[in-house]
Design goal:
The complex is a heterotetramer of chains A (981), B (460), C (399) and D (173).
Chain A: H1 9-20, E1 58-61, E2 68-72, E3 88-95, E4 100-108, E5 111-117, H2 130-139, E6 149-150, E7 153-154, H3 157-173, E8 177-182, H4 188-200, E9 204-208, H5 215-225, E10 230-233, E11 240-244, H6 255-264, E12 277-282, H7 287-290, E13 294-297, H8 303-318, H9 333-341, E14 346-350, H10 355-367, E15 375-381, H11 388-400, E16 403-409, H12 413-416, H13 420-427, E17 432-435, H14 442-445, E18 449-450, E19 461-466, E20 469-473, H15 486-494, H16 500-512, H17 522-532, E21 534-536, E22 562-567, H18 581-584, E23 593-594, E24 599-601, H19 603-609, E25 615-619, E26 623-629, E27 637-641, E28 665-667, E29 670-672, E30 674-678, E31 680-686, E32 690-691, E33 706-708, H20 709-714, H21 721-728, E34 745-750, H22 759-767, H23 775-779, E35 788-793, E36 802-807, H24 816-820, E37 826-828, E38 834-836, H25 846-850, E39 857-858, E40 894-895, H26 901-913, H27 926-929, E41 936-940, H28 947-952, E42 957-958, E43 970-973, E44 975-977
Parallel strand pairs in A: 8-9, 8-16, 11-12, 11-14, 12-13, 16-17, 17-18, 22-27, 24-26, 33-44, 34-43
Antiparallel strand pairs in A: 1-2, 3-4, 4-5, 6-7, 6-18, 10-15, 19-20, 20-21, 22-30, 23-32, 24-27, 25-26, 25-31, 28-29, 34-41, 35-36, 37-38, 39-40, 42-43
Helix pairs in contact in A: 2-22, 3-15, 4-15, 5-10, 8-9, 8-10
Chain B: H1 17-29, H2 35-61, H3 76-87, H4 89-100, H5 110-131, H6 158-191, H7 195-204, H8 212-245, H9 257-283, H10 292-323, H11 326-338, H12 342-354, H13 362-366, H14 368-395, H15 410-433, H16 439-449
Helix pairs in contact in B: 1-16, 2-15, 3-5, 3-9, 3-14, 4-5, 4-8, 4-9, 5-6, 5-15, 6-7, 6-8, 8-9, 9-10, 9-14, 10-11, 10-12, 11-12, 12-14
Chain C: H1 2-35, H2 39-48, H3 67-70, H4 73-81, H5 83-88, H6 92-100, H7 113-126, H8 130-148, H9 152-188, H10 194-218, H11 235-241, H12 246-249, H13 264-271, H14 283-294, E1 300-301, H15 314-320, H16 326-329, H17 346-355, H18 370-378
Helix pairs in contact in C: 1-8, 2-7, 4-7, 9-10, 13-14
The chains are: A alpha/beta (981), B mainly alpha (460), C mainly alpha (399), D alpha+beta (173).
Amino acid sequence: MEKKYWQSLEVYKEMKKNTASDKEAMPEFSIDGLDESEVKGKSSRRDFLKMMGFSVGAVALVSSCQMPVRKAIPLLNRPQELIPGVPNYYASTFYDGDEYCSILVKTRESRPIKIEGNDRSPISQRGTSARVQASVLNLYDDARLKGPVKSGKQNDWKTIDKDIKAKLETLKTDDKEVILMTSTIISPTTRKLIGDFVKSYPNVKWIQYDSLPMSAMRNANEANFGKAVIPFYHFENADVMVGFNADFLGTWLMPVTFTRQFSKGRKLKDGQTKMSRLYQFETNMSLTGSNADYRYQIKPSEEAAVLLKLYNVLAKKTGNTVFGSPSVKTDVNTAARDLLKAKGKSLVVSGTNDLQIQLIVNAINNLLGNYGNTIDLSTPINLKQGQESEMMQAMSSIQSGKAGGILFYNVNPVYDCVHKDNLVKALKKLPLKVSFAATMDETAQLCDYVCPDNNYLESWNDAEPVQGFYSFAQPTIRPIFDTRQFQDSLLSWLGAEQSFTDYLEKNWEKSLFPKQKDFTSFNKFWFKCKQDGVYSFAAKDGPQPSYKGVRLKAGKPMENTLELALYEKISMGTGKYANNPWLQEMPDPVTTATWDNYVTISPAFAKMQGLEQEDVVKINGKLVLPVLIQPGQAEGTIGIAIGYGRNHAGKVGDGVGKSVYGLMNVTNGTKNLLGTVVAMKKTSNTYPLALTQTHHVMEGRPIVRETVLGSFIKNPAAGNEEHEKFLKSEDFSLYPEPKFEAFQWGLSIDLNSCTGCSNCLISCQAENNVAVVGKDQVKRGRIMHWLRMDRYYSEMDDNPEVFHMPVMCQQCDNAPCENVCPVAATTHSDEGLNQMAYNRCIGTRYCMNNCPYKVRRFNWYEYVNNNSFDYNMNSELGKLVLNPDVTVRQRGVVEKCTFCVQRIQEKKLEAKADNRELRDGEILTACQQSCPADAIQFGNLLDKKSAVSKSNDTGRMYHLLESLHTLPSTSYLTKVRNKEA
Amino acid sequence: MYNIKARGVLIEGNKRYHDITRDVTNPLLSKTTPTWWWIAAFISSAMLVWGIWGFYNTIVVGTGTWGLNNSVSWGWAIINFVWWIGIGHAGTAFSIFLLVLHQKWRTSINRAAEAMTIFAVMAAGMFPLIHMGRIWDGFFVFPYPNTRGPLWDNFNSPLFWDVMAISTYLTASFLFWYVGMMPDFASIRERTVSKIKKRIYGILSFGWLGSARGWLRFESAALLMGGLTAPLVVSVHSIVAMDFAAGVVPGWHSTIFPPFFVVGAIFSGFAMVLTMMIIVRKVYKYEEYVTQRHLDAIARVLTFVSLIMGVAYISEIFVAWYSDSPYEMFVFFKNRAVGEYSFEFWAMIIFNAIVPQLFWFKKIRKNITIVFIISILINIGMWYERFVIVITSLSKTWLPSTWHGYSPTITEIAIYVGTIGFFVFGILLFLRFLPMMASSELKGILKETSIVTENTENHE
Amino acid sequence: MIMSRFVNITRQKNIPLAAPLFLFFIFFLVAFSSFGQTPEAEKNFAQCKACHTIGGGRLVGPDLKGVTSRYPQAWLIKFIQNSQAMVKSGNKDAVKIFNEYGKIPMPSHNYTDAQVKDILLYIKNGGKLPAGSEVKKAAVKISASSAQKITPAERYLQEKREGSRNLAIFAIISGVLLVLSLLDLIFTRYLKAKWIHYVIILSALWIIGEWSYDFATGLGRQQNYQPDQPIWFSHKVHAGQNQIDCEYCHFTAETSMHAGIPPASVCMNCHTQVKKGKRTGKKEIAKVYAAIKANKPIQWIKVDNLPDFVYFNHKQHVKVGKLDCTECHGDVAQMDQIAQVKDLSMGWCLDCHRTHKVQFTNNKFYGSYKKLHEKLKAGKIDLVTVKMIGGEDCQKCHY
Amino acid sequence: MNNQNQILGVFDDPDEVTAAVKELLRNDVQVQDVFSPFPIEHVWELLKLKTRIPYATFLYGVIGTAGTFGFLYWTSVINYPLIFGGKPTNSLSFIVIMFVLTILSGVIFTLATYLIREKMWPGKKASMPDTRSMDDKFVIVIDKHKNMDDDAILKINELLKKNGAVEVNMNNV
């Protein structure tokens, strides 16, 4: 069966009709289209709603019967598309104010359970990020508001609409300003709607506020090109990339897109030997830095000087203007040489929000002729439109009393703005404060009205992340609570009768439909957009605007100061997802720490200060944080992650870590993460940090095998000599070689493509109902992730090379774990899988000991319905995210990666039902499906033409710990670094 | 086995047959229980109660109450299990090996040693049980016909062998022990005046008569059962060793393990016998039966076994070096010798291989206090040996990313203490209610091994 | 033991059922040979029969006699595949029919064009089929007469239930006897002949053991479970007398893991017309109306339960494996109240997996099993069982 | 037991018992049994007592081995063959289990045989000619036939006394 991209407008309306009248039948919440009265019982193993259309619950023990009575409650009326037990996929769009991704939403029994990447999107190309994967859990967040709130108490929409409308009218007549503060809005229809809103309330002033703005880049482009835009980058076209504090593989701008592009330029498939090279100059050890071929450590205050030095070297060689610059030690000659060699096929980016720096970056890129090749100004990125000046103006108008009201949409400035106290004080004066926050966040706490917005999975929307690329969002579930989409709120205050759904459709019909030429009828166009989730207009290769040079300058680097470099964590971002337990527990790919932020310091600095890991330090006399020793941290700097220290995020996120937004560097009106000068003092306390790894070097073992490009070209098996040795000794087995009938599932991981972004971890967690265990348990070494991201440093030194390696069950054919289970709970299947029957396991944990890869996980406690583990599996709402095809494991059993056997079985069954052979590439494991780097291949090893066989059929292939002769079905491809030997 | 020709006096004090009967049965028949017994029983049952709390906590809350983690998923429970099993080797080793080797000095010790075996194996058996994540499904380990297909067990698993071996060992040891006690029950039955005791011991004695034919069959059956159980002594700990040796964990995967474990078990078992007998002979005034000569014999055995242990340690290290495997070398030279747990490693070496060498000196063998202390040190050393094997190996295996330390929690400690309480309490019950020496065997050797002055005709 | 039970059930059930099945089979053959449509059409038409007759007058839907000449074939195919879409799109004829028949939507069917054509051919021919109606009547007669009596399936269930009750009573009596004889043996010594004691003790232990085994193996099993449903719905009437195809109501059996409990709207397909039952009158049917009116789904009691850690997929077994529903659910057509006939234990599943033939050569999917195909061709094996393609693997059902 | 009386020779010393038995046998006196607090091997030889328990034990062992192998082979090769770690289903691991279960069956059945042969069970009433034989006395039991005349009895008495019997008693069973 083809994957179905449902168009669902009709269905949606129908559902609404059907369920409108049976509210009473539903307990606390209801799921759209499902009339399930939840008869709750304790018999929840494969938890919750295993049965479709009917819910399962235990009522009581029937006198003579041993088993509880289970009820089978059918739908009263079944929507046509809804088949109990069969998943539907809807194309939609993820956009949270910072990050964009085109997605497919997998729904079962009308509830979204998993986010997959949408392979029809030219922007995100089937990739997702960890945050996108985890976003589905936000839908089932207990902290979500159950209805609109007036002065801290729940109220109904009618009253609140009346109140707000009245107040807006008064403010209009009083000619008081009303500030509409939103995150960057990339939805063209919403922008139009806000335009309409401003038209009927002319006193409304719309500002866009980004917690981490990129205004400097826009301003620099305005200065250089006359266009205040963020250009679109093409990392795949660049042969040499130089990054300055830009974590473009992890958090910067469009990490999913950039990861895909980056890995494309470095794939060594099908005999390809060309590979791009990445130089990274940075302060903290970022994910991008960990993937760099050459990494240089610079202090934030040096960045401009180093950039200018680079510019000057390049300018000298190309005969351009040279500007005076302060001297810095950092060597830029190698980078400059490579950049020059790759003129027009290179790219320099900086993530620092500083005008001077961005101007130098532009100058270098211009010098190298990158515009039009690797940088595209004609299709700019629409993200990050916020300008700090707007925010400053708004602040002053609130303070001066010019403003009378404020509306917050998708922003939380009380938490994440630099001058939080001023804002809080100023807000008190305003007579009208409205928040559209979905939860009672820090800002909403201070508002008179909270009009909770729908979750994005409950909303209609559109997006234009990059000019000309449209993306479509449709609801996959009826709003669970009495919430209303922000746009609908605006419409109702406008007095409009129509819903945003209609508004959206009309807008597309009017503004977008005429622009395209593929479809003759709007219905078809509309249907296609909903089905694909994306629509892009043929990119016009417009001429790049001409460059206008400006004078470049750089400040003198500071000396003998301690510079703070704040950074965004891949998991936590700006702190929006603080209440998402999956993300809280996701180990940072570089530090492997979970559930906290901390001060990263370099080993040398630690030695000098006598600091050890977990020692607590005081920063600027107030902020108290533990220390984490981070090899690769630039000398004279410390790093702290933002996004922590929420106070009103919800039960999971409250009080995790410390908020450091107040330490942002504000110079010349731009907010910058880097460069604040701080004072640090050691205290006598310690604070435990929950790291998933306690040892960080490979001890000379051939675990991650690597080579350099030069050697690889000479010999594709370079760096993989161990494998040769192994092949020669392979005959030494007492046992016959394992043979399989038709399928032997295999998985291949290209370590050269894998950036370690850890999206697969969360994808796996969502797919396989992996429990969250909390900080204390992680600290004890009991994290449950079936797929872990191992990270090794070449040395615990100041400038190590970093290796990322995803490790899941290797599905060995000679599995040591199988031999030792006394009760035959883990055996080998006919298809080469190492199968684990949870209900047979008695928990001797012998298999865990005997697994050389240590990929087996034990349920140390009952993680479901246990108040000690108050995460998503302890809440009726949170449990709705569970995949009904996968058993929820009981306390006392061992679990592990199954190669997503439920997906294998599903696709096999589809092929059987369609009376055809299984196609290669049809089965996608959860980790593979959403990998933005396309590093994972899965398929049948017996089929020599399958993608996985082909990728194994290179000199780079090896098995982890192959000398043990466990014969794993998972294989790795050596890492190749593009550097001189 | 080290053959000690303990010629000469094994029973001192001009005992006669009747004296032996009296000495053996009097503690059982006396109506008063000594105060020290009550104190010891109180302490040990308090320990047992704490252990029961540990069990309760583990079963109700989860194995998570222990200090284990995904890398070190066996901890104290397995250490204690192996330790107890080792101690449980002494009884059978005593009775059977020495029986087969015609060592007469076993007679006054073997019954107590066998009792020790029973309680130690029972204490050991608790650990695999409580160690299971789902103890309520523990019956899955037995291959019984079921409605699941039927689904049998994995007969390749050393843990399954363990289940078989230990349950067999416990059964066989118990039966052997019990059969040996039947004549003593009969003599208590005939000696006691209490009706209740007569009834109880009468039932326990199975109607033992002591006829010539009865003795013949008894001896034959006992010898057969003993002979069959003798290889079990070797096999049980070999199989326990295979739990480790069959694993791929560096530090475990070693062919030397089975003999090494068996010797270690006998070592710790004999040491525990020594500890116990020194106490028992003191409180029961059995110095005439358990003589200096007995203790001396045990001490000599310990010296010899300690040398074997030393050789085993050295050969393990040598093999690791000789293998040239970086993983093996890491385990021995980096992880154990100087790593996180080096204290335990060196304690093991010193207590097991070096301290017992003091027994070469006759003076030390004669000094009961020092012998007692050394016997306890050996038991501690043997505990550390299991700690070193289980924990250091698991904490740092193949992939450095998975390395993780381990320290026990209060629950694990409680369970361990609880089993000690159980053991002591069991021994106390044994001392109070069961004949603690085989009177028939003592009587059998009395003539050859005691100094009976010739002028004893008028013994009426 | 379990296995032998299983065999018993099959035997008891099949023998009395053979006669009507045989008749039906003959009818089948006749129909097939004389008119040439595939037997599949016959099966597919069973679904249609719920609402339509061929020359039997109007039921829920129109009489289909001559329908093939009234409308063009293409129109019919489209209508049968998805009538609602046609109505919505405003097709005049479709709307007309829709309005004429009380606006009861005809459910859409997942038939291919070829299948529909087959059915149409069947209708075309079937209208002229005197033999068919006779057989149908005969079948109805048989089941109607047996309606008064207990059907073999129910009798079996009753016997089983009585059997285990009897065993329990025996066990209690033996327990009492055991205690008595023990007391007598030790204390009172009333009976001089001791062998009587021994016989009593041994046989009592045997019976108690038998009962314990029965009880223990039945733990967590619900064989013979026959709960009262909220609506007295008779499968015997619907599936037996009226010959409604199972998949007419349990319509997702071929497309989903769940066979699906029919939504009340499916009931309404017929019960807008049929408002009175022969045996229950209006009372039970009224409950369906009430549910629809109150917009509250009917809370049926699930009969065949598998533990939560078992993954069972109807699509695999019904669509791919082409198993008959009765193989697991028993002869539902003979049951008024549904009961769990098989014990649904893992052993029972495996027993079938070990012996059941796979649709090996009929399904192209199994082309991947090249070695087995070679063996089959070489005559080394004469059939491929589920076991041979991994049917004994844990992860076929547990994940 | 028959209803005949017995002559009991009570001794203090095992060696004297052996001598007395030898003497009695030489004088064609049927020694019925000897009760002693511990086994006296010479007496068995003199009385020509033999036991076949070792043969039975051997048989049990053989049955145990074969039965275990049969069970293991049937379960893991025929009934439900499962693959563990790439090992063949018919594996060497069976040896360990066979070894252990052989011992188990040997021990249990040997004990059972012993108890059955000796007709011993819990609570059996022990009828002893002289209960002191449980303590420190050795008792030689001689059947007193109905047709045994006083001379014979006296002779036996004398023989016993001569060989060191402390007492000679008559016992009515």
